[in-house]
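Let's practice the habit of predicting before peeking. Look at the sequence and jot down your guess about where helices and strands might fall. Then scroll down.
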Amino acid sequence: MPVAYCNLKTFRKILIVVGMLFATSLNAQEIDEAKHEAPYKTIRFFHIGTGSTCETSFQVGGLIASTISKPPGSRDCDKGGNCGVSDMISVAQSTRGAAMNAANIGDGKMKAALIHADIAYMANYGKGLFKDSSAVGKLRAVAMLHTESIHLVTKKESNIKSIKDLKEKRVSFGARGSGTLESSRVVLEAFELAMDSIEASHMETGQAIDALISGEIDAFFMITAAPSVPLVRLAENFAIKFIPISGSEVKKINSPFLSKTVIGKNVYKGFDEIPTLKVGVLFVLSSDVPEQLSYNITRAIWHKNNQKVFKNYLAGNFICIKEAVKGLGIPLHAGAKKYYKEAGVIP
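Done guessing? Here is the structure:
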């Protein structure tokens, strides 16, 4: 029986966390009261664009959604209830990824999303893959909550040992609309490898994994926090290797948003340290979002009760509040800026 590398099991951890948060918010009596109260309340539904359901961004989006939500009838935060925005229900929405999220905010189709820092910068100022389209201009940061690492995966018996060995190989660069293609392109340029020298394809994570196993592709790029559940399961069931992104060429990488990192030994069981690059992931709002709502969302994210949830899930990939406002590449939302000033994070 084939192994499902991306299915409902991928979401169980996040769904359990969300369920626990809401379960602690409402008891039977309060649910009954909410039924009578809800018709008189204006409930705000708030969608957050994320990425493929296989990826960390979707799960982190679910965490953000749960922490900023506070449905009518919820217990007060200091009594063990949700510490979110009153009368708001937020939901993580699966998308093709960062580039699509930026475009959707620009078009007014979304008000919030998770976007890689390099993609947010390009979109806001009409650079890179957005240079031939009008700049989004509406992206405003709330925080950089975590980092994700570039994974380059191939079969263990493959003759691919470095980035340069990708020449004339069949490689997936993530789904169209994701941030993976643009970040990977920057890496290829540093290694003096032209994109047209590679047989490129664009697959979501689950598709890329299946294609690697079946021999349809030779390798795939994926940007995600380590360890990634689909990659853990792949490594457990199939002989793979991770290609390091290292050497003198890394110094030539022309992006202030990509920096060197190392995926530690046994983060993926049985694998030594993997030198690679990481990029920050921003929680972004549209400039159309009212200042007070932005302030309330930011305050909810950094509430001490909610921080425990993020730290437990993201572990070493999590960024503390003092670092969360650095290297954003785009302006802070006015409401978020107000919160950080009051918290003494920025002057």
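How did you do? The CA atoms of residues 68 and 84 lie 4 Å apart.
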